[in-house]
């Protein structure tokens, strides 16, 4: 493979990638903010759930071992 051929393939790759990115429907700023808030809220909710579950199992295990 010649050097010119390699550069042509790289150029074609980036041209194709840019072409595909122009077809993407990007979310609006409001959607990004709403989705981010939902992800953060769900993460906190799941962390609290597992924290409570861990605490309950810890109490149960402590009762079994004592």
TrEMBL record:
InterPro entries, alphabetically?
SecE_bac, SecE_sf, Translocase_SecE/Sec61-g
What parts of the sequence cross the membrane? 32-57
Where is the protein situated, by its record's location annotation?
Answer: Cell membrane; Membrane
Subunit structure comment from the entry: Component of the Sec protein translocase complex. Heterotrimer consisting of SecY, SecE and SecG subunits. The heterotrimers can form oligomers, although 1 heterotrimer is thought to be able to translocate proteins. Interacts with the ribosome. Interacts with SecDF, and other proteins may be involved. Interacts with SecA.
Q: Name one GO cellular component term.
A: plasma membrane
Q: Keywords for this entry?
A: Cell membrane, Membrane, Protein transport, Translocation, Transmembrane, Transmembrane helix, Transport
Could you tell me the gene encoding this protein?
Answer: secE
Protein's name according to its UniProt entry: Protein translocase subunit SecE
* Signal sequence bounds: none
Which protein family is named in the record? Belongs to the SecE/SEC61-gamma family.
Q: How does it sit in the membrane?
A: Single-pass membrane protein
Q: What is a single molecular function from GO for this protein?
A: protein transmembrane transporter activity
One matching Pfam family, short form?
SecE
Gene Ontology biological process terms in this record: intracellular protein transmembrane transport; protein secretion; protein targeting; protein transport by the Sec complex
Q: What does this protein do?
A: Essential subunit of the Sec protein translocation channel SecYEG. Clamps together the 2 halves of SecY. May contact the channel plug during translocation.
């Amino acid at each position: 493979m010649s050097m010119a051929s390699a550069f042509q393939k790289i150029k074609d790759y980036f041209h194709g990638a840019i072409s595909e990115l122009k077809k993407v429907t990007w979310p609006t700023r409001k959607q990004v903010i709403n989705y981010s808030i939902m992800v953060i809220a769900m993460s906190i909710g799941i962390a609290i759930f597992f924290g409570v579950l861990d605490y309950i199992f810890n109490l149960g295990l402590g009762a079994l071992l004592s």
